[in-house]
Amino acid sequence: MAPQYAPSLRSHLAPMLLVLQLGFILIYAFYIEIESNIKVYGITFSNMYPEFHDVNVMVILGFGYMCTFLVRYGFSGSGFNLLVTVIAIQWAIILNGIDNWYYRGKIRIDLKSLVVAEMCAASALISIGVVLGKTNPVHLILIALLEVSGFVLNEWLLQTLLKVPPLNSIMLLHIFAAFFGLMLTRILYRKGSEQPFEKEKVDRKTGLFSILGTLFLCVFWPSLNSVLVDNRTPGRRLGAVLSTYLALAVSAVTAAAVSSLSSPEGKLNPIHLQSCMLAGGVSIGVSMPAVHQPWEAMTIGFTAAVVSTIGFRYLKSHMLLAFKFHDTCAVLSTHGLPGLLGWLAHLLLQIKDCDDHTRIPLAIRFAVFHICSLITISLSLCMGIITGLLLKWNFWRPPQDKKCFDDQAFWEFLHLAVQK
């Protein structure tokens, strides 16, 4: 019997990539210039470049290697991650500079704007993890463009209407990305997904590469959480680095303990250590402005790992059976729940630090904080619905169920080519 190939994307993928890239080149040619000031708000090239480098490694290598855990989807997991990243960064730079263009006629970019764009791209990569293996590259590009657009819109609403600091609004990327992805996978649900797909498997070699991605993320996560902290406040950036490191350390230890306790044989689950040990970094990033003591960061890391590991062990299958959320990378447990926990920790720490003289301003901050979360979740769900409805159109040629999680559907392997 002749092999059943996935639909060809030649007439869709190549034109889309060429049109997008040529359009970006034209926009950059006429409307974007490099910031000429050597020093802006205390930021210099020498003290910003190392942190930009760290975030760049996280986005490209960390997320890229993490997506190689599927036994027959390693090329696609890492290759499509790079493709989506570079497109999302170019698009995010344009969207983040619209205000600048409106007032000055030009979008001025520097290392900080590039870092913010990479964080926007990271939110798209998190969302794509929910539908990893069940979509084609055209789908992924559309998801990245729409998700980044929604996230930048959410950031603009929070900073413009509610006067939320950039650090607080951007660090909601974990919550926005997780709920965007969940709604997207609900709209794109495939019948029969209650049972694992034929090729949705993990082996030792691909699992080892995926853990390598986790190691990259752990090493460079303190830079992600501290890069946007106001450097003019003494000790704040150092505090952010230390808090993130401690939260990640505690999260790794706790994830190992809970994984062993939840296993019938008392063994460690490598997927738990790979994903759930990052929960501390997610939670501490969302709650960073309110964390001032090491024990607070460690407590947040401990709680985040417990919630994430238990969610990974039990919630993923129940979400699939009850609500038809097929979450490939367990993004809800890795980013969504820890992000919500960080939001709650931020609230509780503000209450702990308040006194009688700050009750009225604190009440105002509480109201703004709740509105921020409500706007973020609502907008992410709406954007997920819009994106899902767009992608359900058969014009985009989705892969058949038998070709999901399969590199051969999109990549040319000469040693596997059919001889004519």
Automatic annotation (TrEMBL):
Membrane topology, record value: Multi-pass membrane protein
InterPro entries (alphabetical): Ammonium/urea_transptr, NH4_transpt_AmtB-like_dom, RhesusRHD
Organism of provenance: Champsocephalus gunnari (Mackerel icefish)
GO molecular function: ammonium channel activity
Entry function: Functions as an ammonia transporter. May play a role in the elimination of ammonia in the gill.
Main location: membrane
Keyword flag Lipoprotein: no
Domain Ammonium transporter AmtB-like: residue ranges: 44-392
Official protein name in the record: Ammonium transporter AmtB-like domain-containing protein
